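Postdoc handover notes: sequence design on the structure in folder B. Input tokens:
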């Protein structure tokens, strides 16, 4: 279980931004304080530490960033995709995963998706003012992918993408669906992924991650016309 408590929020001029969070897993429990120096001290931040017998992961995100990232999962192609996710969403991301790659990349990819989803969900917080929905279509040479998402707190993945190559680098292509399933599940995201065209597997994967990034950017942004409103007629999200 991870509890996150954002002590300093947007608008503060104090630097560096201090985040308090506590982490507990199994019988272990620890409390940490992290300094995340950010220009202006503003930002919606999520910090997750996750440790199992299979992976040890730390993730921090700033939704109000510029797309800076430091990503090391031990899986080159996965790093390349996560860098796209950060760069094109403008969400700053630090992702470190130390996983059981001697088995295969499955646990590392899935658990990174879980931790990233949790971090984004925590950073969004009460969802007040966000646009909530986002969709984008990205072309990359012959490939075209569409991602539509709703930060609904209802986890749901619709996956429509087929890879003809079993792997890209050391990453099995079947793990892309596992990643987005984990991201949607932990992030409370209704997530539809559709690859519409493409033959090059690198292009298919990359266009999906870029489309997800652009859709996510739209959805997490504060709508200036409704910055104090919860985007739901239900009154809860
Ligand atoms: Mn590429």
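Designed sequence:
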């Amino acid at each position: 279980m991870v509890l996150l408590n954002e002590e300093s929020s947007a608008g503060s001029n104090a630097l560096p931004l201090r985040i308090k969070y506590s982490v507990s897993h199994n019988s272990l429990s620890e409390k940490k304080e992290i300094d995340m120096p950010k220009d202006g001290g503003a930002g919606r931040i999520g910090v997750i530490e996750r440790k199992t017998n299979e992976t040890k992961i730390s993730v921090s995100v700033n939704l109000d960033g510029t797309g800076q990232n430091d990503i090391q999962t031990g899986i080159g192609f996965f790093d390349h995709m996560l860098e796209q996710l950060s760069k094109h969403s403008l969400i700053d991301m630090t992702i470190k995963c130390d996983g059981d790659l001697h088995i295969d990349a499955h646990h590392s990819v899935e658990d990174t998706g879980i931790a990233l989803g949790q971090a984004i969900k925590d950073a969004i917080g009460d969802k007040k003012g966000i646009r909530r929905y986002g969709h984008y279509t990205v072309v990359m040479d012959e490939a075209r992918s569409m991602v539509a998402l709703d930060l609904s707190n209802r986890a749901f993945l619709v996956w429509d993408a087929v890879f003809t190559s079993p792997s890209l680098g050391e990453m099995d292509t079947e793990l892309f669906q596992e990643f987005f399933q984990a991201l949607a599940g932990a992030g409370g995201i209704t997530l539809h992924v559709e690859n519409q065209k493409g033959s090059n597997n690198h292009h298919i994967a990359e266009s999906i991650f870029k489309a997800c990034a652009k859709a996510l950017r739209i959805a997490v942004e504060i709508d200036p016309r409704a910055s104090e409103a919860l985007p739901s007629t239900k009154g809860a999200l």
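Context for whoever picks this up: The helical segments are 76-89, 106-124, 175-187, 201-220. Don't rerun without checking with the PI first.
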